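Re: folding output
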Amino acid sequence: MHISQQIAAEAIGQVFAGRNLGVVLESLFARYSNITPQQRAVAQDLSYGTLRFYGAIEALLDQLLQKPLEDAKLQCLLLVAIYQLQYDKAASHTVVDQAVKAASQSKKTWAKGLVNGVLRNFLRQQPELVANLKDNEFATYSYPAWWVTKLKYQYPDNWQSMLEAGNQHPLMTLRVNQRQISVADFVSKLEAEGIVSQALGANAVSLDKPIPVDRIPGFSAGEASVQDYAAQVAGYALDLKDGQRVLDACCAPGGKTGQILELADVDLVAVDNDVTRIALTQNNIERLKLKATLLVADAANSVDWWDGKPFDRILADVPCTAAGIVRRHVDIKWLRREADIASFTKQQAQILPSLWQVLAKGGKLLYVTCSVFQEENQRQIDSFLKLHADAEQLPLDQPLAGLILNNGQLLPSAQHDGLFYALLQKR
């Protein structure tokens, strides 16, 4: 287990140096090529768990140290071990022993003794240390102070539940490809494999426990895709009809691209400026046995790639802070800075008018973010409407069972992520 602890500690250190957790883990797994699948899974769980509850873990560790540790690697190792002792199910003596073994990799002779002493003190004082944090907001919610302050101001009635939802383990939700199989038949397939699930509405099915995609029957044949329930609003809100010309802007990795093609026979153009990520979109639609025209291009500069034929429908799934999907991407809480919001809103404000130029008169554009910050959402739309007299925001009907759209905002919950939707029509 100490290899898993070691990898997790390295990953967390790199995240706090500004790197994406998913990218970091893949590079570490490539370096530790001899680890078993179980060790790999444990390292991933420890990395996600430690970052999910970092505020509480750091506050607990601070009480145990007489002064801040100058050795960042040992600091991260202690954070991982305290996460295990506080939140994980591993035996405490095993956690301590393995952490001491991991500390032996350090060139500092005192490292093993420090790790052993800190962790054993934690076990002896655990109830008291935890009780000391009851009025510590950073420890209670494990978010940066600016994030908590912003949600308090923008969502005075919901901020606590939103923060708590972001710290939960996400459901694994699937979208059934109606072109290949019905929801009822797909659920029966899952049941035959011993996979417990429930239909949510339309083509969505949630699993009681997450599983690797290669265990999902029919996945490789395109019968289903992994997609959060809130994200599945997009295809229905677009008001698709056979024969339409549709643009999926900022399409990668292609989840919504596939949904559009499953729901209607349309002429679909999918655009993304990342050549690596658009390859994921291509793989996705090929797996679903569907077809689209894919372009590596910048949605903010449509004059460079548009062929002059207007689109009846446009999906603008724009870059954003991703503040509504932190339960899936726990590193976002610690990588984002408040100043990043202005950077994303500037980018969004460039993409929207560019896409508006290629929308047909009477056509509809669906603006989507996976954020909960109002600057990226309704405020962005309000600014756009002031500058475009030919634009009208349409009401969004309740698109899927069990989802509550509050002025276009889906608040994060145990059942789904937090996304924003705005439907615009060109007069």
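--- second protein (sequence, then structure) ---
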Amino acid sequence: MPDCPNRQSSGRDARSAGPDLELVDVPRGGSFKVWSHGYPFRTVRWHFHPEYEIHLITETTGRAFVGDHIGTFAPGNLVLVGPNLPHNWISDIPPGTEIATRCLVLQFTGTFATGLASLFPELVFLDGLLAAARRGLEFTPKAGVAARPIMQELLAASGTRRLELLFALLGVLQADRGRRPLASIGYRPNSSEYMEHPLNHVLAHISRDLSHDFRESDLAALSGYSVSAFSRAFQRHTGMNFVSYVNRLRIGRACELLLGSRRRITDICFEVGFSNLSNFNRQFLAQKSMPPSTFRTLYLGQATAEVNDDASTRENKQRIH
């Protein structure tokens, strides 16, 4: 997806208009989100979000912007970004070049992280790590090398294996004594000020109730733009048009409901805001390359196989003993 051109040309341009809000869709059936993306990509812009983020560069070199820090990056660059801390990584590549996978990303809420620290005494180090992350923490290249296979496996992992890998990744961060803060000690992100941007206000409004029948003219009025100006600004701000953006959020929510409930597909269709089943199926197929029924069947089949494997392992251990 195309990046916002005026956000990529230089460090000054990357931060001149204030950071954009990124809506992080942590799955309701999971504790954290793991994903990867290429370059250019819609999230490659000066942006912020309330969640913590572990960000690992796998390809390209370029300039990194974290808070008031400006530096360089290369493959293996591993950074932990704190809540609402603006950040961006801009790759130095020729115009028109596309990179299939530029980075690996893991995102989680502060509530989840502090809950881990309170439940497991072995993770008490998280309190200090999370506090330091509010300035952004850059880890050594050695830690980046160790983190890469863990994060790559996390992309497809499920069940308890996800938690095993998460703990292993946190162990890599904790063991790295060469980590360093990035933003200056006096830097404080101001999320309430960022949210004053009219389009950030609109994005938050959309995320609160995806079942609402959103009309571009209503959201334009909410932002104070004319409809044509809103359309152009929304494309620059999110990297996609208004309809595509809302459909992406709705399909993401539908996936959560398909995996985490027994509700009928028709009911899910209407709950996430689609007015008819045919459009829902068409949008789902376009985004997930399969219909919703197949998506649910494949996931449940995989989950059942995992449970059976665990049961078989326990049975074999009992026989051995």
